[in-house]
C-alpha cells in the first residue's frame, strides 16, 4: 500500500510549502515581526464611496451575488466578502451612510445580519440600524428586478460588488453605472473579472479580494498571511520560467508533475 | 458551557477537523471507516443546504406577512407572494411528482429563470456601447480585441471577415490564456490563504463573528 | 442636452428594444446563414467520434434551467451520437437541479433516436444522479463510485445495474464529457479525473467561460470544448441534426452584428464630439 495516493505527491508538497509559509509569517507576526505590506487602494476606495454616499444623502449597496455556502467554489469568495462587509458596515456606521445588503440565501442572510449588527454595535450606533431594512433576504431570481428597480428609485450613490459573481455581474454593474453610482467590484470567478474591471470605477482582481479581506481584519497576524501567499506566487513564477525554458529545450516535465 | 465556547471555539474546531479530514483523504490512502465518515459528512451538505432553503423561505414569508399586516408600501405584491408560496409549497408537500406542481416548475419557474438569465445579453450590449470607447491607447486595444473576438464568435463573422478567425484565435489562446492562467494561480493562492486562516480560527466572519474593538462611548 | 450628448448617453431601453428585435426576428423566422465550425468544437466532436464502440463514457450533466437552452440541444445530440455508436453512458451530476435537467436531456435524446438503436436504462445508459460535496465529492466518486453512490437517480441499487458491473472508478471509463454549463466545475473533472487517472476529457460551458478553460485546452488537459449555444449548434451541424441550438445560433449573428454596430457608432460619435470640443 502506497504512503501517498499516486499522482498527488507534487500537490501535497505544494500545499505543505505554501500553507507552511503562511503559518510561518503568521507566527512571526505573533512575535512582533510584521512584514511590510503595501497599502491596498481598495481600503481608501471604500472610504471614498461611503463618503460620497454621506455627502449625497443616498444609500450604498453591498451586493454579493451567489452566496450558496454549501457550494465549495462559492464559499471561499463569500467568506472573503463577509470579511469586507464587516469592515464596510462598520465604516458606514461610523460615517452615517445608509447601507443596503440584499442576500439571496437564508444561511448567508443570518450571517450578514449578525455581521452588520455587530459592526453597528461596535460603533455604538445600534439605535440607527434598522436591520430588516438594511439586510434583506431576496430569493434568487426575484433579486434581479427588485435590486434594479430600487437602484433607480433610491438613486444610490455607491455600490460594492464583492464575492462570487456570475452572470448578474454585468446586469447590476451596468445598471449601477447608469444610475451614476461609484463602484468597487471584485470577484474570483475569472470569466467575470473583465466585466467588473471594465464597468466598475475600481476593481479587485482575483486574489485581491482575499487579500482585502485579510487586510481589513485589523489583525496584523492575519494580514501577515498575505506574505506567505506571495511566497506561493514567487514559486509559481519560478516554475513558469523554468518550465518554459525546459520545454523550449525539448525536455518534457509532464512526468514530474504526475508523481 | 460558556457562550464563547459554543459560538466560537466549537465551530472553529469542527471546521478545522472536517476540513483536514477531507484534505488528508485526498492525499493519503485511508481505511474504509474514514472514507465512510467523509461520505457521510459530504451528504450532510445536502441536508444543511435544504435546511438553509427552508430558513430563507421562513424569513421571507415572515417579512411579507409583516408587510401585509402593517400595510407598508406595495404590500399588495406581498399578497401575491404569500398566495403563490402557499399554493406551490402545498402541492409540493402533498406530492412532489404532482402534475400541477411539475407544470408550475416546467412552465413558469424554469422559463422565468431562463428569461432572467438572458437579461445578461441586453446589459452586456448596453455596457459595451457605453464602455468600449477608445479614450486612450489601453481602451483602444481593448476595443479592437473585443470586436475581433466577437466577430470570431458569431457564426457568420469569419465568413464576412476571414482575418478575424486567426487573429481572434491568437488573442484567445495567447494573451487571454496567459492572463487567465495568472488569475487562476492567484485565486488559488488566495483560497489557500483563506483556508489556513479559517482552519486556524484567525478569521471567523463566516460564523457571523468579528471580534470588533468597540469605539469609545 | 445636445443631440450628440443624447446619442452618447443613449437610453438603455432603446438599446434593449433594438437588440430584442434583432434576436426575436430570426428566432421567429429562422434564417440559415453559412457557419464556420470553430476548432474547439471540431476537436470535441472528433474526440467523441473516435470513442470505440462498446466503451463506457462518463458524462457530467451540469445544465440548469438558465443554461439548458444553450447546452441542452448539444447534450441531447451527443447522447444520440454516442448511443448510435454503441457507446455506453454513465451520467452523474454535482447539483440537485442539474440532476433533474439531465433526466430531461436524456428523455429528449431518446425521443430523437432513430428506431433500432439500443437505449435501455441500465444496459446502454444509467443516470447515477446527484453526487454531493462538490469537488471533494467528485474526488471520492472518481476513486470509488460505490462509496458515494449506492443506487441510481431512480432508486435502483447500483449492484443490480448490468452496466455498472465492472465500473467502479474513473479509470474504468474511456472518456469524460463534462457538460458543466455555468457551474464552473470543469476544473473539478480535470483535477480529480484527468490528472490522477489520465482519462481524456472534453466538455461544454457557456460562451463567456470558454477563455477560462483555454489554459487547460492548450496544456492538453482537455480536448476542445463546446462553447455555449454556438458550440451546441456546431455539434448539431456536424451530426447532421439541425435543431434548437442552430436556430438560436443564427439569431446570435444578428445580435452580434448589432452589438458591433453600436460599439462602432458609439466610437464614431465619441470622436466627433471630441473634435467639436477641441475646435471650441
CATH architecture grouping of the largest domain in chain C: 3-Layer(aba) Sandwich
- What is the straight-line distance between the termini of chain C? 17 Å
In CATH, the topology of the largest domain in chain C is named Rossmann fold
Number of strands of chain B: 0
Instruction: Indicate the low-confidence ranges of chain C by residue numbers.
Output: none
Describe this structure in words.
The complex is a heterotrimer of chains A (259), B (217) and C (280). Chain A is built from 10 helices and 6 strands, in the order ααβαβααβαβαβαβαα. Chain A is α/β, with parallel strands linked by helices and 259 residues long. Chain A has a domain at 41-215: 3-Layer(aba) Sandwich (Rossmann fold), CATH 3.40.50. The longest helix of chain A is centred in the C-terminal third of the chain and has 29 residues, at 220-248. Chain B has a domain at 95-131. Chain C contains 11 helices and 6 strands. Chain C folds into 2 domains: 3-30 and 253-279; 39-241, Rossmann fold (3-Layer(aba) Sandwich). Classes of the chains: A alpha/beta (259), B mainly alpha (217), C alpha/beta (280). Chains in contact: A-B, A-C, B-C. Chains A and B meet through helix 1, helix 3, helix 4, helix 7 and helix 8 of A and helix 1, helix 2, helix 4 and helix 8 of B.
Topology:
The complex is a heterotrimer of chains A (259), B (217) and C (280).
Chain A: H1 9-30, H2 41-56, E1 60-65, H3 72-95, E2 99-103, H4 106-122, H5 131-134, E3 135-137, H6 142-154, E4 158-164, H7 168-179, E5 182-187, H8 193-199, E6 202-205, H9 208-215, H10 220-248
Parallel strand pairs in A: 1-2, 1-4, 2-3, 4-5, 5-6
Helix pairs in contact in A: 1-10, 2-3, 3-4, 3-9, 6-7
Chain B: H1 3-27, H2 32-70, H3 75-94, H4 99-131, H5 137-153, H6 157-160, H7 164-173, H8 175-199
Chain C: H1 3-8, H2 12-28, H3 39-49, E1 56-61, H4 68-84, E2 88-93, H5 96-112, E3 125-130, H6 134-143, H7 145-148, E4 175-181, H8 186-197, E5 201-205, H9 210-218, E6 226-227, H10 228-239, H11 244-279
Parallel strand pairs in C: 1-2, 1-4, 2-3, 4-5, 5-6
Helix pairs in contact in C: 2-11, 3-10, 4-5, 4-10, 6-8, 10-11
Amino acid at each position: 500500500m502506497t504512503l501517498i495516493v499516486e499522482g498527488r505527491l507534487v500537490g501535497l508538497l505544494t500545499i505543505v510549502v505554501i500553507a507552511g509559509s503562511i503559518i510561518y509569517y503568521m507566527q512571526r507576526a505573533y512575535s512582533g515581526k510584521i512584514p511590510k505590506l503595501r497599502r491596498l487602494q481598495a481600503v481608501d476606495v471604500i472610504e471614498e464611496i461611503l463618503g460620497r454616499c454621506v455627502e449625497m444623502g443616498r444609500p450604498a449597496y453591498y451586493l454579493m451575488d451567489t452566496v450558496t455556502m454549501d457550494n465549495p467554489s462559492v464559499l471561499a469568495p463569500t467568506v472573503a466578502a463577509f470579511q469586507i462587509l464587516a469592515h464596510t458596515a462598520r465604516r458606514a456606521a461610523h460615517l452615517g451612510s445608509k447601507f443596503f445588503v440584499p442576500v439571496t440565501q437564508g444561511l448567508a442572510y443570518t450571517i450578514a445580519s449578525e455581521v452588520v449588527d455587530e459592526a453597528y454595535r461596535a460603533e455604538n450606533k445600534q439605535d440607527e440600524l434598522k436591520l430588516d431594512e438594511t439586510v434583506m433576504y431576496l430569493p434568487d431570481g426575484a433579486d434581479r428586478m427588485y435590486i434594479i428597480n430600487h437602484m433607480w428609485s433610491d438613486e444610490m450613490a455607491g455600490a460594492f460588488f464583492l464575492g462570487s459573481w456570475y452572470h448578474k455581474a454585468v446586469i447590476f454593474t451596468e445598471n449601477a453605472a447608469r444610475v451614476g453610482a461609484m463602484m468597487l467590484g471584485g470577484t474570483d470567478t475569472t470569466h467575470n473579472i473583465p466585466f467588473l474591471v471594465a464597468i466598475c470605477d475600481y476593481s479587485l482582481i482575483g486574489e485581491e479580494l482575499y487579500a482585502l479581506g485579510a487586510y481589513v481584519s485589523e489583525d496584523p497576524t492575519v494580514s501577515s498571511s498575505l506574505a506567505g501567499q506571495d511566497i506561493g506566487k514567487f514559486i509559481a513564477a519560478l516554475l513558469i520560467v523554468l518550465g518554459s525554458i525546459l520545454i523550449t529545450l525539448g525536455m518534457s516535465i509532464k512526468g514530474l508533475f504526475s508523481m | 458551557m460558556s457562550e464563547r465556547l459554543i459560538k466560537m471555539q466549537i465551530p472553529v474546531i469542527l471546521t478545522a477537523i472536517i476540513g483536514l479530514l477531507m484534505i488528508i483523504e485526498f492525499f493519503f490512502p485511508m481505511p474504509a471507516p474514514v472514507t465512510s465518515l467523509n461520505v457521510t459528512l459530504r451528504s450532510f451538505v445536502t441536508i444543511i443546504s435544504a435546511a438553509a432553503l427552508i430558513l430563507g423561505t421562513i424569513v421571507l414569508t415572515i417579512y411579507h406577512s409583516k408587510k401585509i399586516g402593517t400595510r407598508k408600501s406595495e404590500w399588495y405584491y406581498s399578497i401575491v407572494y404569500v398566495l403563490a408560496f402557499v399554493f406551490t409549497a402545498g402541492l409540493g408537500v402533498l406530492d412532489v411528482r404532482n402534475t400541477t406542481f411539475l407544470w408550475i416548475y416546467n412552465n413558469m419557474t424554469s422559463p422565468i429563470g431562463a428569461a432572467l438569465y438572458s437579461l445578461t445579453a441586453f446589459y452586456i450590449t448596453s455596457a459595451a456601447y457605453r464602455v468600449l470607447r477608445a479614450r486612450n491607447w489601453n481602451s483602444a486595444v481593448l476595443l479592437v480585441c473585443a470586436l475581433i473576438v466577437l466577430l470570431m464568435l458569431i457564426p457568420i463573422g469569419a465568413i464576412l471577415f476571414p482575418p478575424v478567425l486567426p487573429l481572434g484565435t491568437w488573442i484567445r489562446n495567447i494573451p487571454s490564456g496567459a492572463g487567465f492562467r495568472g488569475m487562476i494561480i492567484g485565486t488559488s493562492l488566495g483560497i489557500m490563504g483563506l483556508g489556513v486562516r479559517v482552519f486556524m480560527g484567525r478569521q471567523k466572519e463566516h460564523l457571523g463573528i468579528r471580534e470588533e474593538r468597540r469605539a469609545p462611548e | 442636452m445636445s443631440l450628440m450628448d443624447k446619442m452618447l448617453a443613449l437610453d438603455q431601453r432603446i438599446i434593449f428594444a433594438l437588440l430584442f428585435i434583432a434576436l426575436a426576428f430570426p428566432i421567429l423566422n429562422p434564417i440559415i446563414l453559412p457557419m464556420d465550425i470553430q476548432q474547439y468544437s471540431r476537436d470535441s466532436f472528433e474526440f467523441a467520434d473516435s470513442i470505440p464502440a462498446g466503451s463506457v463514457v462518463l458524462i457530467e450533466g451540469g445544465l440548469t434551467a438558465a443554461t439548458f437552452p444553450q447546452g441542452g440541444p448539444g447534450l441531447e445530440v451527443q447522447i444520440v451520437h454516442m448511443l448510435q455508436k454503441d457507446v455506453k453512458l454513465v451520467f452523474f451530476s454535482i447539483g440537485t437541479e442539474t440532476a433533474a435537467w439531465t433526466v430531461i436531456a436524456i428523455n429528449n435524446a431518446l425521443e430523437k433516436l432513430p428506431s433500432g438503436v439500443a437505449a435501455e436504462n441500465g444496459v446502454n445508459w444509467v443516470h447515477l444522479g446527484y453526487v454531493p460535496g462538490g469537488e471533494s465529492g467528485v474526488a471520492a466518486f472518481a476513486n470509488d463510485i460505490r462509496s458515494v453512490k449506492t443506487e441510481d437517480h431512480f432508486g435502483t441499487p447500483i449492484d443490480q445495474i448490468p452496466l455498472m458491473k465492472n465500473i467502479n472508478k474513473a479509470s474504468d471509463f474511456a472518456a469524460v464529457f463534462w457538460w458543466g454549463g455555468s457551474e464552473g466545475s470543469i476544473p473539478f473533472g480535470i483535477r480529480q479525473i484527468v490528472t490522477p487517472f489520465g482519462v481524456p476529457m472534453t466538455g461544454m460551458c457557456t460562451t463567456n467561460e470558454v477563455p477560462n478553460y483555454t489554459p487547460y485546452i492548450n496544456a492538453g488537459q482537455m480536448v476542445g470544448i463546446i462553447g455555449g449555444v454556438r458550440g451546441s449548434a456546431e455539434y448539431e451541424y456536424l451530426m447532421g441534426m439541425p435543431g434548437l441550438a442552430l436556430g438560436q445560433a443564427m439569431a446570435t449573428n444578428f445580435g452580434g452584428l448589432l452589438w458591433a454596430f453600436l460599439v462602432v457608432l458609439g466610437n464614431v460619435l465619441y470622436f466627433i464630439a471630441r473634435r467639436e470640443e477641441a475646435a471650441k
